[in-house]
Amino acid sequence: MSTQPTALSAPGTRTPRGATALLALVVLDLTFLVNALDRQVLPVLLPDIRTEYQLSAGQSGLLSTVFTLGLGFAGLASGFLTDRFRRKTVIAVGIAVFSVATLLQPLSTGFTTLVTYRILSGVGEGIQYAALFAAVGSFFVRRKGFALGSINVAYGVGAFLSPVVGTALADGFGSWHAPFFLYAGLGALLLVVMLVVVPRWFTEVRTEPAAAIAVRTKLPVNRNLLACAVLAFVPGFCGYSYLGLYPTYLRTELHFGTGELGVVTGIFAVGSLLSMVSGPLADRYNPRWLLVASVVGSMVAGALMFNLHSGPVVQALLSVVEGISLSGFLLLVTSMLIQRSVPVSAVGRATGIFTLSVYLPAAVSGYVFASLVQRLGWGTAALIQLTALPVVALIAIAVLDHRVLQPRKDLP
Hints:
Helix content: over 70%
GO molecular function: transmembrane transporter activity
CATH class: Mainly Alpha
Largest sheet: none
Number of domains: 1
Radius of gyration: 20 Å
Protein name: Sugar phosphate permease
CATH superfamily: MFS general substrate transporter like domains
Subcellular location: Cell membrane
Number of helices: 17
Mean pLDDT: 82
Keywords: Cell membrane, Membrane, Transmembrane, Transmembrane helix
Order of helices and strands: HHHHHHHHHHHHHHHHH
Distance between the termini: 34 Å
Membrane topology: Multi-pass membrane protein
CATH topology: Growth Hormone, Chain: A
Protein backbone atom coordinates (compact mmCIF):
# COMPACT_ATOMS: atom_id res chain seq x y z
CA MET A 1 0.00 0.00 0.00
CA SER A 2 1.72 3.17 -1.22
CA THR A 3 1.85 6.50 0.49
CA GLN A 4 1.57 9.85 -1.26
CA PRO A 5 4.76 11.95 -1.42
CA THR A 6 5.52 14.13 1.54
CA ALA A 7 5.51 17.89 1.45
CA LEU A 8 9.11 18.28 2.49
CA SER A 9 10.90 17.25 -0.67
CA ALA A 10 10.24 20.21 -2.95
CA PRO A 11 9.57 23.53 -1.25
CA GLY A 12 12.59 25.71 -0.74
CA THR A 13 14.92 23.52 -2.83
CA ARG A 14 16.81 24.52 -5.94
CA THR A 15 15.70 21.56 -7.97
CA PRO A 16 13.52 21.26 -11.08
CA ARG A 17 10.74 19.93 -8.87
CA GLY A 18 11.12 22.89 -6.50
CA ALA A 19 10.87 25.34 -9.41
CA THR A 20 7.79 23.52 -10.72
CA ALA A 21 6.21 23.72 -7.27
CA LEU A 22 6.69 27.48 -7.16
CA LEU A 23 5.26 27.82 -10.67
CA ALA A 24 2.27 25.72 -9.63
CA LEU A 25 1.74 27.98 -6.61
CA VAL A 26 1.79 31.07 -8.85
CA VAL A 27 -0.78 29.55 -11.22
CA LEU A 28 -3.08 28.59 -8.34
CA ASP A 29 -2.65 32.08 -6.90
CA LEU A 30 -3.76 33.54 -10.24
CA THR A 31 -6.93 31.41 -10.24
CA PHE A 32 -7.77 32.87 -6.84
CA LEU A 33 -7.03 36.37 -8.13
CA VAL A 34 -9.78 35.93 -10.74
CA ASN A 35 -12.17 34.92 -7.95
CA ALA A 36 -11.44 38.25 -6.29
CA LEU A 37 -12.12 40.12 -9.53
CA ASP A 38 -15.66 38.74 -9.61
CA ARG A 39 -16.32 39.10 -5.88
CA GLN A 40 -15.40 42.77 -5.71
CA VAL A 41 -16.82 44.11 -8.96
CA LEU A 42 -20.54 43.76 -8.25
CA PRO A 43 -20.65 46.11 -5.22
CA VAL A 44 -19.15 49.02 -7.20
CA LEU A 45 -21.59 48.38 -10.06
CA LEU A 46 -24.54 47.86 -7.71
CA PRO A 47 -26.07 51.35 -8.15
CA ASP A 48 -26.32 50.73 -11.92
CA ILE A 49 -27.64 47.20 -11.44
CA ARG A 50 -30.15 48.47 -8.88
CA THR A 51 -31.45 51.03 -11.38
CA GLU A 52 -31.72 48.51 -14.22
CA TYR A 53 -33.65 45.93 -12.21
CA GLN A 54 -35.51 48.42 -9.94
CA LEU A 55 -34.21 46.77 -6.76
CA SER A 56 -35.14 47.72 -3.22
CA ALA A 57 -32.49 48.47 -0.57
CA GLY A 58 -32.94 45.01 0.92
CA GLN A 59 -32.64 43.31 -2.46
CA SER A 60 -29.50 45.33 -3.21
CA GLY A 61 -27.95 44.36 0.11
CA LEU A 62 -28.79 40.70 -0.43
CA LEU A 63 -27.42 40.74 -3.97
CA SER A 64 -24.12 42.24 -2.80
CA THR A 65 -23.28 39.27 -0.54
CA VAL A 66 -25.56 36.38 -1.53
CA PHE A 67 -22.81 34.64 -3.53
CA THR A 68 -21.25 33.69 -0.19
CA LEU A 69 -24.23 31.41 0.50
CA GLY A 70 -23.11 29.13 -2.29
CA LEU A 71 -19.47 29.62 -1.35
CA GLY A 72 -20.01 28.56 2.26
CA PHE A 73 -22.00 25.37 1.64
CA ALA A 74 -19.91 24.36 -1.37
CA GLY A 75 -16.74 25.02 0.60
CA LEU A 76 -17.91 22.68 3.35
CA ALA A 77 -18.76 19.96 0.82
CA SER A 78 -15.48 20.56 -1.00
CA GLY A 79 -13.58 20.13 2.25
CA PHE A 80 -14.94 16.61 2.63
CA LEU A 81 -14.43 15.81 -1.07
CA THR A 82 -10.88 17.13 -0.89
CA ASP A 83 -9.93 14.54 1.73
CA ARG A 84 -11.30 11.73 -0.48
CA PHE A 85 -10.66 12.67 -4.12
CA ARG A 86 -7.94 14.34 -6.14
CA ARG A 87 -7.61 17.96 -5.13
CA LYS A 88 -6.62 19.02 -8.63
CA THR A 89 -9.89 17.65 -10.00
CA VAL A 90 -11.90 19.43 -7.31
CA ILE A 91 -10.11 22.73 -8.03
CA ALA A 92 -10.76 22.36 -11.78
CA VAL A 93 -14.47 21.71 -11.26
CA GLY A 94 -14.70 24.80 -9.05
CA ILE A 95 -13.01 27.05 -11.62
CA ALA A 96 -15.28 25.73 -14.39
CA VAL A 97 -18.48 26.34 -12.41
CA PHE A 98 -17.31 29.81 -11.38
CA SER A 99 -16.44 30.81 -14.97
CA VAL A 100 -19.80 29.70 -16.39
CA ALA A 101 -21.74 31.46 -13.62
CA THR A 102 -19.76 34.68 -14.12
CA LEU A 103 -20.55 34.57 -17.83
CA LEU A 104 -24.27 34.12 -17.13
CA GLN A 105 -24.64 37.03 -14.66
CA PRO A 106 -24.84 39.85 -17.25
CA LEU A 107 -27.35 37.73 -19.18
CA SER A 108 -29.80 37.71 -16.25
CA THR A 109 -33.41 38.59 -16.99
CA GLY A 110 -34.22 39.87 -13.52
CA PHE A 111 -33.44 39.83 -9.81
CA THR A 112 -34.20 36.13 -9.33
CA THR A 113 -31.97 34.89 -12.12
CA LEU A 114 -29.17 37.26 -11.12
CA VAL A 115 -29.30 36.02 -7.53
CA THR A 116 -29.25 32.43 -8.80
CA TYR A 117 -26.16 33.04 -10.92
CA ARG A 118 -24.44 34.88 -8.05
CA ILE A 119 -25.05 31.91 -5.77
CA LEU A 120 -23.77 29.57 -8.49
CA SER A 121 -20.58 31.63 -8.84
CA GLY A 122 -20.17 31.26 -5.08
CA VAL A 123 -20.60 27.50 -5.42
CA GLY A 124 -17.73 27.43 -7.91
CA GLU A 125 -15.52 29.54 -5.67
CA GLY A 126 -16.37 27.40 -2.66
CA ILE A 127 -15.49 24.16 -4.44
CA GLN A 128 -12.17 25.67 -5.46
CA TYR A 129 -11.47 27.45 -2.15
CA ALA A 130 -11.26 24.51 0.25
CA ALA A 131 -9.35 22.29 -2.19
CA LEU A 132 -6.90 25.08 -3.03
CA PHE A 133 -6.08 25.95 0.57
CA ALA A 134 -5.84 22.27 1.55
CA ALA A 135 -3.50 21.48 -1.36
CA VAL A 136 -1.18 24.43 -0.76
CA GLY A 137 -1.25 24.12 3.03
CA SER A 138 -0.45 20.39 2.90
CA PHE A 139 2.40 20.78 0.41
CA PHE A 140 4.17 23.69 2.08
CA VAL A 141 4.21 22.18 5.56
CA ARG A 142 7.21 24.14 6.86
CA ARG A 143 6.30 27.36 5.05
CA LYS A 144 2.54 27.27 5.46
CA GLY A 145 2.37 30.96 6.38
CA PHE A 146 4.31 32.01 3.28
CA ALA A 147 2.30 29.79 0.92
CA LEU A 148 -1.16 30.62 2.28
CA GLY A 149 -0.07 34.26 2.48
CA SER A 150 0.68 34.25 -1.25
CA ILE A 151 -2.91 33.16 -1.94
CA ASN A 152 -4.19 36.02 0.18
CA VAL A 153 -1.89 38.46 -1.63
CA ALA A 154 -3.28 37.24 -4.96
CA TYR A 155 -6.77 37.88 -3.64
CA GLY A 156 -5.70 41.36 -2.55
CA VAL A 157 -4.30 42.22 -5.97
CA GLY A 158 -7.50 41.01 -7.64
CA ALA A 159 -9.70 42.85 -5.16
CA PHE A 160 -7.76 46.08 -5.73
CA LEU A 161 -7.84 45.79 -9.53
CA SER A 162 -11.46 44.72 -9.75
CA PRO A 163 -13.21 48.01 -8.89
CA VAL A 164 -10.71 50.06 -10.92
CA VAL A 165 -10.84 47.82 -13.99
CA GLY A 166 -14.55 47.11 -13.57
CA THR A 167 -15.61 50.76 -13.45
CA ALA A 168 -13.28 51.60 -16.36
CA LEU A 169 -14.77 48.80 -18.49
CA ALA A 170 -18.32 49.71 -17.52
CA ASP A 171 -17.72 53.36 -18.41
CA GLY A 172 -15.85 52.49 -21.60
CA PHE A 173 -18.49 50.10 -22.94
CA GLY A 174 -21.42 51.96 -21.43
CA SER A 175 -22.65 48.84 -19.63
CA TRP A 176 -22.02 47.04 -16.33
CA HIS A 177 -21.98 43.75 -18.30
CA ALA A 178 -18.47 44.15 -19.72
CA PRO A 179 -16.38 43.27 -16.62
CA PHE A 180 -18.23 39.98 -16.12
CA PHE A 181 -17.49 38.83 -19.66
CA LEU A 182 -13.78 39.60 -19.19
CA TYR A 183 -13.52 37.84 -15.82
CA ALA A 184 -15.34 34.76 -17.12
CA GLY A 185 -12.87 34.53 -20.00
CA LEU A 186 -9.90 34.85 -17.67
CA GLY A 187 -11.30 32.07 -15.51
CA ALA A 188 -11.64 29.73 -18.48
CA LEU A 189 -8.11 30.54 -19.65
CA LEU A 190 -6.58 29.86 -16.23
CA LEU A 191 -8.49 26.58 -15.98
CA VAL A 192 -6.61 25.33 -19.04
CA VAL A 193 -3.28 26.64 -17.72
CA MET A 194 -3.86 25.01 -14.33
CA LEU A 195 -4.64 21.62 -15.89
CA VAL A 196 -1.43 21.76 -17.93
CA VAL A 197 1.01 23.32 -15.46
CA VAL A 198 0.06 22.11 -11.96
CA PRO A 199 1.31 18.53 -11.34
CA ARG A 200 -0.57 15.96 -9.29
CA TRP A 201 2.36 15.45 -6.92
CA PHE A 202 1.89 19.09 -5.86
CA THR A 203 -1.83 18.94 -5.11
CA GLU A 204 -2.12 15.38 -3.77
CA VAL A 205 0.35 15.44 -0.84
CA ARG A 206 -0.74 13.15 1.99
CA THR A 207 1.01 11.78 5.03
CA GLU A 208 -1.12 8.63 5.26
CA PRO A 209 -1.98 5.88 2.77
CA ALA A 210 -4.88 6.84 0.52
CA ALA A 211 -6.97 3.92 1.79
CA ALA A 212 -6.58 5.11 5.38
CA ILE A 213 -7.69 8.60 4.39
CA ALA A 214 -10.72 7.26 2.54
CA VAL A 215 -12.09 5.44 5.58
CA ARG A 216 -11.48 8.30 8.01
CA THR A 217 -14.97 9.76 8.40
CA LYS A 218 -14.81 11.73 11.65
CA LEU A 219 -13.38 15.21 11.84
CA PRO A 220 -11.55 15.68 15.16
CA VAL A 221 -13.61 18.32 16.99
CA ASN A 222 -11.75 20.30 19.62
CA ARG A 223 -12.01 23.70 21.22
CA ASN A 224 -9.49 25.23 18.83
CA LEU A 225 -11.54 24.13 15.84
CA LEU A 226 -14.66 25.67 17.37
CA ALA A 227 -12.86 28.86 18.44
CA CYS A 228 -11.44 29.31 14.93
CA ALA A 229 -14.93 28.87 13.49
CA VAL A 230 -16.17 31.70 15.73
CA LEU A 231 -13.17 33.84 14.76
CA ALA A 232 -14.02 33.32 11.10
CA PHE A 233 -17.44 34.85 11.74
CA VAL A 234 -15.96 38.38 11.92
CA PRO A 235 -14.43 38.64 8.44
CA GLY A 236 -17.54 36.88 7.16
CA PHE A 237 -20.52 38.64 8.69
CA CYS A 238 -18.89 41.96 9.56
CA GLY A 239 -16.34 42.19 6.76
CA TYR A 240 -18.68 41.33 3.90
CA SER A 241 -21.38 43.70 5.07
CA TYR A 242 -18.77 46.44 4.74
CA LEU A 243 -17.49 45.19 1.38
CA GLY A 244 -20.99 44.81 -0.03
CA LEU A 245 -22.42 48.23 0.85
CA TYR A 246 -19.42 50.52 1.35
CA PRO A 247 -19.44 51.58 -2.34
CA THR A 248 -23.12 52.51 -2.05
CA TYR A 249 -22.34 54.58 1.05
CA LEU A 250 -19.51 56.39 -0.71
CA ARG A 251 -21.63 57.19 -3.76
CA THR A 252 -24.95 58.09 -2.11
CA GLU A 253 -23.83 59.67 1.17
CA LEU A 254 -20.38 61.11 0.42
CA HIS A 255 -21.06 61.65 -3.31
CA PHE A 256 -17.77 60.20 -4.54
CA GLY A 257 -17.18 60.12 -8.28
CA THR A 258 -16.56 56.92 -10.22
CA GLY A 259 -12.77 57.24 -10.11
CA GLU A 260 -12.65 58.01 -6.39
CA LEU A 261 -15.12 55.21 -5.71
CA GLY A 262 -12.99 52.62 -7.51
CA VAL A 263 -9.75 53.62 -5.78
CA VAL A 264 -11.15 53.95 -2.24
CA THR A 265 -13.07 50.68 -2.51
CA GLY A 266 -10.23 48.77 -4.12
CA ILE A 267 -7.52 50.02 -1.77
CA PHE A 268 -8.99 47.79 0.94
CA ALA A 269 -7.15 45.02 -0.86
CA VAL A 270 -3.77 46.59 -0.11
CA GLY A 271 -4.20 45.13 3.35
CA SER A 272 -4.10 41.64 1.87
CA LEU A 273 -0.53 42.26 0.74
CA LEU A 274 0.52 42.14 4.38
CA SER A 275 -0.38 38.45 4.37
CA MET A 276 3.23 37.88 3.30
CA VAL A 277 4.17 39.39 6.67
CA SER A 278 1.40 38.06 8.90
CA GLY A 279 1.81 34.45 7.73
CA PRO A 280 5.52 34.14 8.60
CA LEU A 281 4.94 36.06 11.86
CA ALA A 282 2.24 33.58 12.88
CA ASP A 283 4.61 30.70 12.01
CA ARG A 284 7.40 32.06 14.19
CA TYR A 285 5.61 33.72 17.10
CA ASN A 286 2.53 33.31 19.26
CA PRO A 287 -0.26 34.75 17.07
CA ARG A 288 -2.66 35.61 19.91
CA TRP A 289 -1.78 39.30 19.90
CA LEU A 290 -1.87 39.44 16.10
CA LEU A 291 -5.46 38.22 16.32
CA VAL A 292 -6.39 40.69 19.08
CA ALA A 293 -4.87 43.63 17.20
CA SER A 294 -6.63 42.68 13.97
CA VAL A 295 -10.05 42.41 15.63
CA VAL A 296 -9.65 45.73 17.47
CA GLY A 297 -8.36 47.41 14.29
CA SER A 298 -11.41 46.29 12.34
CA MET A 299 -13.75 47.51 15.09
CA VAL A 300 -12.22 50.99 15.14
CA ALA A 301 -12.03 51.35 11.34
CA GLY A 302 -15.61 50.12 10.92
CA ALA A 303 -16.91 52.71 13.36
CA LEU A 304 -14.97 55.63 11.87
CA MET A 305 -15.50 55.06 8.15
CA PHE A 306 -19.30 55.22 8.44
CA ASN A 307 -19.41 58.01 11.04
CA LEU A 308 -16.77 60.42 9.74
CA HIS A 309 -18.06 62.34 6.73
CA SER A 310 -14.57 62.68 5.33
CA GLY A 311 -12.95 62.94 1.93
CA PRO A 312 -11.27 60.27 -0.23
CA VAL A 313 -7.89 60.38 1.56
CA VAL A 314 -9.26 59.66 5.03
CA GLN A 315 -11.70 57.05 3.72
CA ALA A 316 -8.88 55.36 1.80
CA LEU A 317 -6.74 55.19 4.95
CA LEU A 318 -9.62 53.69 6.94
CA SER A 319 -10.26 51.21 4.14
CA VAL A 320 -6.61 50.14 4.24
CA VAL A 321 -6.79 49.62 8.02
CA GLU A 322 -9.92 47.50 7.55
CA GLY A 323 -8.15 45.48 4.86
CA ILE A 324 -5.03 44.95 6.96
CA SER A 325 -7.08 43.88 9.97
CA LEU A 326 -9.57 41.54 8.30
CA SER A 327 -7.82 40.20 5.22
CA GLY A 328 -4.14 40.72 5.94
CA PHE A 329 -4.17 39.25 9.44
CA LEU A 330 -7.42 37.87 10.88
CA LEU A 331 -8.56 35.77 7.91
CA LEU A 332 -5.13 34.32 7.13
CA VAL A 333 -4.00 33.60 10.70
CA THR A 334 -7.34 31.95 11.51
CA SER A 335 -7.07 29.70 8.43
CA MET A 336 -3.56 28.68 9.55
CA LEU A 337 -4.67 27.92 13.10
CA ILE A 338 -7.62 25.80 12.01
CA GLN A 339 -5.25 23.67 9.90
CA ARG A 340 -2.88 23.33 12.87
CA SER A 341 -5.79 22.13 15.00
CA VAL A 342 -6.35 18.86 13.08
CA PRO A 343 -4.25 16.03 11.58
CA VAL A 344 -3.07 16.49 7.99
CA SER A 345 -5.59 13.87 6.86
CA ALA A 346 -8.40 16.18 8.04
CA VAL A 347 -7.06 19.46 6.68
CA GLY A 348 -9.57 19.50 3.82
CA ARG A 349 -12.53 19.09 6.14
CA ALA A 350 -11.18 21.66 8.59
CA THR A 351 -10.78 24.11 5.71
CA GLY A 352 -14.37 23.35 4.72
CA ILE A 353 -15.54 24.23 8.24
CA PHE A 354 -13.54 27.46 8.03
CA THR A 355 -15.08 28.29 4.64
CA LEU A 356 -18.61 27.70 5.92
CA SER A 357 -17.92 29.79 9.04
CA VAL A 358 -16.76 32.75 6.96
CA TYR A 359 -19.18 32.68 4.07
CA LEU A 360 -22.49 31.42 5.44
CA PRO A 361 -22.85 34.43 7.79
CA ALA A 362 -21.58 36.63 4.96
CA ALA A 363 -24.53 35.57 2.78
CA VAL A 364 -27.04 37.47 4.94
CA SER A 365 -24.69 40.20 6.17
CA GLY A 366 -25.52 42.62 3.36
CA TYR A 367 -29.27 42.20 3.87
CA VAL A 368 -28.96 42.69 7.65
CA PHE A 369 -26.72 45.74 7.27
CA ALA A 370 -29.02 47.31 4.67
CA SER A 371 -32.02 46.73 6.95
CA LEU A 372 -30.19 48.36 9.89
CA VAL A 373 -29.24 51.32 7.68
CA GLN A 374 -32.87 51.81 6.65
CA ARG A 375 -34.00 51.87 10.27
CA LEU A 376 -31.09 53.53 12.07
CA GLY A 377 -28.87 55.21 9.50
CA TRP A 378 -25.35 54.35 8.33
CA GLY A 379 -23.49 55.42 11.47
CA THR A 380 -25.53 53.50 14.03
CA ALA A 381 -25.79 50.44 11.79
CA ALA A 382 -21.99 50.36 11.50
CA LEU A 383 -21.53 50.67 15.26
CA ILE A 384 -23.79 47.67 15.79
CA GLN A 385 -22.59 45.37 13.01
CA LEU A 386 -18.94 46.37 12.56
CA THR A 387 -17.94 47.43 16.08
CA ALA A 388 -20.11 45.67 18.67
CA LEU A 389 -20.47 42.20 17.11
CA PRO A 390 -16.71 41.52 16.71
CA VAL A 391 -16.44 41.29 20.50
CA VAL A 392 -17.34 37.61 20.08
CA ALA A 393 -14.02 37.14 18.27
CA LEU A 394 -12.11 38.46 21.29
CA ILE A 395 -13.88 35.88 23.44
CA ALA A 396 -12.91 33.14 20.97
CA ILE A 397 -9.26 34.23 21.08
CA ALA A 398 -9.32 34.00 24.88
CA VAL A 399 -10.41 30.35 24.85
CA LEU A 400 -7.90 29.11 22.24
CA ASP A 401 -5.71 26.28 23.52
CA HIS A 402 -2.20 27.70 23.94
CA ARG A 403 -0.65 24.61 22.28
CA VAL A 404 -1.99 25.54 18.84
CA LEU A 405 -0.58 29.05 19.34
CA GLN A 406 3.00 27.86 19.87
CA PRO A 407 5.51 28.99 17.21
CA ARG A 408 7.03 26.37 14.91
CA LYS A 409 10.40 25.07 16.15
CA ASP A 410 11.59 23.62 12.83
CA LEU A 411 12.03 26.92 10.96
CA PRO A 412 15.54 28.22 10.33
